[in-house]
Amino acid sequence: MFLSMTGFGFKTVTLTIEKGAKISLTVEIKAINSRFFESVCRLPSFLHSSEIKINRSLKEKLLRGRIYLAVNIVEEDSAFEKIIPSLRIVEGYIKAIDKIKNRFKISGKLTVSDILSLPNVFVSGSKQIDSKLENSILKIIDQVADLVVKSRATEGKSLCKDFEKRFLICSQKISQIKNLFSKLMKEKKDEIKKFLAIQENGNEEVKLKLDELYSTINKIDVHEEIVRFDSHIKNVKNVIKDKNIEKGKRIDFMLQELMRESNTILAKCSHFQISSLAVDIKVELEKSREQAQNIV
To answer: What's the predicted TM-score (pTM) here?
Structure first.
């Protein structure tokens, strides 16, 4: 499977919780490019304790990329919220009021309504969810992650076709370079034979020209680079067909090797047509490297 790192999944469900109360839960996952797996989770407070489990599950499913997860709950009857009286604060208020009354000889009774009007008398807290509900929510997150994988696979098909097209162009270009290089080497070798024949007739002045031709042949010899380029192209095609899901880093590495060979061909051989074809190959490889950044 060929997967893009970009994907999106969304799902809304209704769950029944304690005493027949229901909650509406929405889960959204967005995945974008990243060299490694990274996750940013926006969770309700009652799910904070489950974040490690959620991250582990997302990593197993999505492998690489920067993952944004958002879980939102629309509650009924404040299903996961509880109001707790802050007894220490209330006690502090009462003691402080008693001191004021005694110090300044103030009469009057303290009522409940007086206490309720004071700040921070109550605090809100989250209830713990049971394992059954936690597993239900984790299952929904897992299902949304599957939707992300599905959307990644859809975009991955387009990326795969683009890669195959560019590598076919590179194969055709390197084949043309190979043919041109063979012709160029034949021309140089024919020149050497001609000057060797002249030298055999006793003309020593051609020795300098022969040395120059030998030096040129050594400099422009890109046979090794062509063979390695062909080998890398075959390898990268095999990686694309491989059933192993994680291909991005391997393809990126092979593209670097292909770029290195094309740069060497360009530097060693000053033949105009060969240089032009090498530049064309580099353009295709650069485009492919941009695309490789978006592969899992």
So the answer is: 0.71
